[in-house]
Every structure is written in structure tokens, then in C-alpha cells.
């Protein structure tokens, strides 16, 4: 809730700041051998670029042959033709097509992914529709998620309504967690699904594990392995459905679909929080560019020192607030401390995102520190990387806490340094 309030407070300011970056419509054509950095109300790129592209605007259209990476942000973004590297998109509406030589990451409201992707695909939004061909793994999360893609790796889906369409072909495993789940395509290995209602009408080459209130096996379904399911009552298995292996039913009045709902809700909350943090981080680097970059540099240069400072702040502050509130008379002060703590966490995470993205770009010999849109791009990249790392069980959580501690420590040390300079 607090993040949502912060996001609302900063939204108008960010929109105005973005508009000030470049108020004109921009059209770029021709050939380029260096990275393109462009922003405007409407940005159109129809060019051959033997480098990377960073673009930001109310509407961004990229129809180009690009050898490097593409990072873009806006109200509506369309990326097509051929991209040799990775694509990172954050926008209200996203459309992708053509060929992608690296990985594709899209975070937004309404997303349509129709590209042929050599690497992995990550799509998170309100509505996600994924087609095309993916040589790696595909991870999709949203309110409504549909895929008709041919996926050479594994598929993971989370959301309210999920559908693997009839045209979809998943060569690896498929995991789906949501409210209503429909499996109409082909899954090459095992299928695991947890939801309120699960309908299987396609073909699964391996075993099927289902946790649901209602399970329906359609007349055209074919399961080559075993079927294991847990539910309050037996599944509806239509005549004409084929299950080549054994069927195991565990009756439970409290089925584990509640876990599915919790995970689906958590996925939606994570998406909202990530969006709010992107807005906060963008505001942070626009309003406090010097402090943010200096703190990120300090964290990278002195990781152990800033880790210690940040971890102390991370752990000690809420304990101190609880002690204050325990005394009753200190409740107002304790609440102020906790409010300040939440602000520090948000700022520290923004600095952590800057630090992570700057380190990654340093390996590529790139520096986005000078321009406002470059710093915003760093925040977006860093937060997405942190979110993905956080999905790794245990190790991801440890890594995120350590990185966040370094970011908070860098901020605290930099503020202390500036105060000392002022008073000296």
C-alpha cells in the first residue's frame, strides 16, 4: 500500500520529467555504427544499427535491424524486425515481433509477444499473450495469460486465468499456478498445475500432477504417463479421454489449491510492487541523480564496508522501532522511525538496482550515467535483474538481501560523508 501511495505521488512528476527530456517526435533512419540514445513524445526507429538502442517516449516504434541490445520504455512500445542481442521493455502496451538473438523481457500492462527468440522469455503484465517460437524457457505471469508458442525449453505460468492454446507445443515441462487453467496444447514432458479449476483437453507426454477444486479431462485429452491429483471430489473424466498410466486420487477437503491462490496472488502483488519500484527508482535518479550515483559507486567500490553498514540498518532499525513502541509513550516516535525505514528501503533498492545494472554494463564497456533516460534505464534493468534473482530458492533471497544491504549501506555512508563535508 505504501509503495502504491509513493507511486501515485511521483507519477505526475515523472511524466513531466520524461516529457522534458525531448518534447518532439523523433524519426531515425539510415545506418548507425554506435549506440543510439533517443527520447521523445513519439519515437520511430527504422534503421540498421550495428550497436545497441535505448529509446523512451510516450510511443516507441522500433522496426530495425539491430546487432546489439534494445532497452526501451514508454506508454506503448512496438519492437520488430531483427535484434541480435537482448530486449528489455517496460511499457503500458507492448508488442514484439521478428527475431531476437538473445533474451526477451517484457514488463507492462497489455503484452503481445510474437517474436522468434533464441534465448529465454519473461513476460509480466495485466494481459499477456505469447506466441512465436522460443528456443529457451518461457516464464509468464499476469491476470490473463495465453500462449500459442512453440517452446523448446520449459514453460512456467502464474496468474488468474491461464491457457496453453491448441497450437502451443512445449517440448519441456510445464508448470501452471492460477485460478482457471486450460491445457489445450501439447506438453512434451510432465505437467504440474494448481488452481481452482483445471481443464486438460490437450496432450501430455509425461506424468500429470494436479491440485484443484475441479479437474476435468476432456474427450480429446491424452495423457501418456500417470495422473496424480488432489481434490475434494473425483475428476470429471470424459468418455474418449485417454490416460495410459495409473490414476491416483487423493481426496482432501482442504486441497492445496489454496497454495495456488496464494502464489497467484503473490505473483500479482510482485508485479504491482515491481512497477511501483520502477516508478520510485526513476523518480529517485531524476530528483537525486548525484546522490544516487555516488551511493551506487561507493557500494561497488567498498562492498564489504557498505554491506556491514546496510545490514545493521536493515536489522537494527525495525528492532529499535519495536522497542520504542513497546514503551507506549514512544509509539509516535516508533511510527516515524518505521516510516523513515520504508523510505530508506525504497531508496536503497533503487541504489542497488543502479549498482547491479552499472556493473553489468561495465563488462560491456558502456556507461549510461550522464543522461537522465540512461539512469532510468539502469534502474529498470537493475530491478528486473533483482526480481529474477529473487525467484531462485534460498540463494536468491540471500543474494537480494546482501545486495540491498550494500545499497542501503552506500546511501547511509554517502549521506554521512556529505554531512561531514558540510560541517567541516
Largest sheet: 24 strands, parallel
Give the low-confidence spans.
1-23
Total number of helices: 7
Distance between the termini: 41 Å
Shape: flat
Helix content: 25-40%
Overall residue-averaged pLDDT value: 81
How many individual β-strands?
A: 24
User: What Rg is obtained from the alpha carbons, in whole angstroms?
Assistant: 24 Å
Tell me the count of domains: 3
User: How large is the share of residues in beta strands?
Assistant: 35-45%
Q: What does it look like?
A:
- The chain has 424 residues and is α/β, with parallel strands linked by helices.
- The chain contains 7 helices and 24 strands.
- The chain has helices spanning 2-21, 257-287, 289-301, 303-326, 331-363, 372-390, 395-423, and strands at residues 26-32, 36-49, 53-66, 70-83, 87-96, 99-100, 104-113, 116-117, 121-130, 133-134, 138-147, 150-151, 155-164, 169-170, 174-183, 186-187, 191-200, 203-204, 208-217, 222-223, 227-231, 236-237, 242-243, 247-251.
- The protein has a 24-stranded parallel sheet that branches.
- The two termini are 41 Å apart.
Amino acid at each position: 500500500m505504501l509503495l502504491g501511495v509513493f507511486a501515485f505521488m511521483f507519477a505526475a512528476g515523472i511524466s513531466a520529467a520524461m516529457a522534458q527530456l525531448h518534447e518532439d517526435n523523433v524519426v531515425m533512419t539510415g545506418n548507425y555504427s554506435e549506440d543510439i540514445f533517443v527520447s521523445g513524445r513519439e519515437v520511430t526507429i527504422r534503421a540498421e544499427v550495428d550497436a545497441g538502442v535505448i529509446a523512451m517516449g510516450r510511443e516507441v516504434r522500433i522496426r530495425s535491424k539491430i546487432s546489439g541490445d534494445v532497452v526501451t520504455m514508454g506508454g506503448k512500445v512496438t519492437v520488430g524486425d531483427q535484434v541480435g542481442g537482448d530486449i528489455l521493455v517496460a511499457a503500458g502496451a507492448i508488442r514484439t515481433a521478428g527475431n531476437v538473438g538473445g533474451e526477451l523481457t517484457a514488463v507492462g500492462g497489455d503484452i503481445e509477444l510474437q517474436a522468434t527468440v533464441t534465448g529465454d522469455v519473461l513476460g509480466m503484465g495485466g494481459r499477456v499473450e505469447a506466441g512465436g517460437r522460443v528456443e529457451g524457457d518461457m516464464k509468464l505471469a499476469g491476470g490473463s495469460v495465453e500462449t500459442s508458442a512453440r517452446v523448446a525449453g520449459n514453460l512456467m505460468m502464474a496468474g488468474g486465468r491461464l491457457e496453453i492454446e491448441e497450437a502451443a507445443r512445449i517440448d519441456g515441462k510445464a508448470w501452471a499456478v492460477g485460478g482457471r487453467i486450460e491445457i489445450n496444447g501439447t506438453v512434451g514432458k510432465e505437467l504440474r498445475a494448481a488452481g481452482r479449476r483445471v481443464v486438460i483437453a490437450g496432450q501430455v507426454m509425461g506424468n500429470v500432477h494436479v491440485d484443484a477444486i475441479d479437474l476435468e479431462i476432456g474427450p480429446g485429452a491424452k495423457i501418456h504417463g500417470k495422473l496424480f491429483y488432489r481434490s475434494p471430489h473425483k475428476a470429471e473424466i470424459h468418455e474418449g479421454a485417454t490416460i495410459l498410466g495409473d490414476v491416483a486420487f487423493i481426496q482432501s477437503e482442504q486441497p492445496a489449491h489454496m497454495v495456488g491462490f496464494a502464489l497467484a496472488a503473490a505473483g500479482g502483488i510482485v508485479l504491482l510492487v515491481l512497477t511501483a519500484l520502477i516508478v520510485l527508482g526513476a523518480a529517485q535518479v531524476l530528483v537525486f541523480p548525484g546522490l544516487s550515483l555516488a551511493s551506487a559507486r561507493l557500494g561497488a567500490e567498498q562492498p564489504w564496508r557498505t554491506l556491514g553498514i546496510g545490514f545493521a540498518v536493515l536489522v537494527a532499525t525495525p528492532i529499535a522501532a519495536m522497542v520504542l513502541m513497546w514503551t507506549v509513550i514512544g509509539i509516535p516516535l516508533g511510527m516515524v522511525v518505521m516510516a523513515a525505514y520504508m523510505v530508506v528501503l525504497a531508496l536503497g533498492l533503487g541504489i542497488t538496482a543502479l549498482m547491479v545494472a552499472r556493473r553489468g554494463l561495465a563488462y560491456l564497456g558502456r556507461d549510461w550515467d550522464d543522461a537522465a533516460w540512461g539512469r532510468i534505464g539502469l534502474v529498470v534493468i537493475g530491478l528486473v535483474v533483482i526480481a529474477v534473482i529473487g525467484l531462485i530458492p534460498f540463494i536468491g533471497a540471500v543474494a537480494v538481501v546482501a545486495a540491498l544491504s550494500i545499497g542501503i549501506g552506500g546511501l547511509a555512508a554517502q549521506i554521512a560523508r556529505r554531512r561531514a563535508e558540510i560541517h567541516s
